[in-house]
Each structure stands twice: as structure tokens, then as C-alpha cells.
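Backbone Fold Data
Goal — C-alpha cells
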Amino acid sequence: MDETSRPHLVVLTGAGISAESGIQTFRAADGLWADHPIEEVATPEAWARNPERVLRFYDARRTQVRRARPNAAHKALAQLEREGFRVSIITQNIDDLHERAGSRQVVHLHGEILKARSSVDERMRYPLPRGGIALGDVCDKGSQLRPDVVWFGEAVPRFDDALELVAEADLLLVVGTSLAVMPAASLLDEAPLATPRVLVDPEASELTTAGVNGLALPAGEGVPLLTRHWRREGRLWLPETVFG
């Protein structure tokens, strides 16, 4: 079967899937913003005022990401792809846990923390296999390197790529996100009308809207539950034993 003719699972993941790997979220009561106001570490203005503080903040996040390991949800999605399903992942997360689990088609909406990029040319990106970014580290154009993340107030450069994927989804799976961050939250409305939509989140019953099937489980339980059904049947569907 041709790659493009196979049913296409498009997955939108948020902070909840990475939290189960021990990566601190921004929005929880004890999350990152509790000690680090957005205005101080995650805006272009913060970078202009105090780049050293911004670099320290993201260096700490980078250390946390390197210590984390993919969990059952990441692994289940990668296994589905290995068994011949067409799986594309759109993630709001800046970690590399999907890739480390084995997923090959991953679009990072908000950038990748294990990369640096030029502060004058966003096309110039540099992997960070170890260490972080210091003041004085420059790109090939001589400009200071910054974290390869999308700050509040900045455009989301890969949003059009995400729109294209969602538009061709045969099933849209949303995992571990409150659907509160725009423009990512709007992607749920961009899938074809006939495309089933599933939200896996412990608070799914409160977050789901009309036309969305909720599965109120943590990512590490809900995603493997679904992928086991799909692998066993060899197709994407909404199993009655899960959704009734």
C-alpha cells in the first residue's frame, strides 16, 4: 500500500504527555511560571532586557529534558508507526521525547530546546548534543545564539505545516493538552468534519467539546489502550469497549 493511501493518524500532544516523564509543566500550580514569570524569561522583551537570565532558565530546562525518558505514551505511538501505521505528531512540547521513543514524523510547533538558533536568522539552527548556550556564543553571522523556542508574542513558524497535516487526518488524537494555547488549540477545528476526534487527558470530561470523544486517563494509560486496539484490528477506529 502506498504511504499516502494508508489511513493517517495525526496526534497533537501537549505538556501532559511530557509531565509523565518528569518534565515540569508551565501551567500547573507548582509549574515553571510559579517561580519564573513569563515576562522575565519567555518573551522577546525579556531577551532584550536580560539575555543571561533567559539563557540560565532554558539551560535548566535543557538539563531536565536530557534526564527525562520517553514514557508509555511516547513508546506506544512509535510502536504504532513501526508496525506500519501512518502516524504524524504535532507537538507543543520543546523536548525530544517523541523522537527518542522512535517517532519519525514530528512537527515541533514551539521549537526544540536541544537546539540553538541565530538571533538574527531563524533558519540558522545548531544542535546542542551537550551543554547549553552562553553569552558570547554566536552563529555563523556573528550574532548571539538564543534558544530555538517560540516565545510569547512570536509567530509559530511551523503552524502551516501542522494545518496541512490536520487537514488530511483520518483520526485526530489529542493528548495531554488543555487546548488553551493559541494558535495550537485551533487545530482541533481544522480536521475534516467526518474525522473522529479523541482527547486523552485526565480532565477530558471537562475539556471535551461537541464532536470530541473524551478518554479521561493519563497519557501513559490512555494512549497504549487505544493503540493496542488499533494494532490488533489493523485499522483506526473508536472501540466500543472504550467509548461505548
Notes: The mean pLDDT is 90. The longest strand covers residues 111-118. Strands lie at 8-13, 86-91, 106-108, 111-118, 125-127, 145-149, 171-175, 197-200, 212-215.
